Amino acid sequence: MALDSLRGEREFRKVRAHGVAVRHALFTLRLTDYRPRYGEPWRPRAIIGLVVSKKTLKHAVDRNRARRRVREALRTMPPELLPQGLPACRAILLPNPGVLSAPFAEVQAALAAALTRARQAPRAAKGGQRGGGNSSSPGRVSSGVPDPAPSPRPRSQP
Fold first, then answer.
1. pTM given for the model
2. How confident is the model over 125-144, as pLDDT tens digits?
3. Where is this region: Disordered (predicted)?
4. What is the CATH number of domain 8-120?
5. Residue 125 dihedral angles phi and psi, to the nearest 5°
6. How far apart are CA 26 and CA 19, in angstroms?
7. Which of 20, 22, 94 lies closest to 51, judged by CA?
8. Where are the alpha helices (DSSP H) in the chain?
9. Cα 51 to Cα 93: distance, rounded to the nearest angstrom
């Protein structure tokens, strides 16, 4: 099965903003529900972006090897690990240095466990505002006690 890849900063930003993070010793997986790209027909599939930073793995050879191992582990996932196959989602996968030394079967088992755990994770209900703002008065946090009515100010006579 060919894997589709996230393309462009905008798609990565959406997954980072709205995704559920699942951490494992071998990698971090951030996952959101599948939505088609603009102008694209509805074809549910896994769209996964692999990100290996220079901070994580210093040498380009190691970064490329980590990418190839994880991509191959996803591509050849045994059906007994994921009976329904890869979920229809958008995901960012950030491998850790342990991916290079772990046995291939262990990488596949960890990926399958993370994907099933991410499917079952409750989606955080996010509002339209950042910071959990109060919709009645933005920028204020409600304390549960209603504000007292403002006292009328006396008018100044000219």
1. 0.69
2. 444 444 444 444 443 444 44
3. 119-158
4. 3.30.230.10
5. -80, 110
6. 19
7. 94
8. 8-18, 60-75, 98-101, 104-120
9. 6
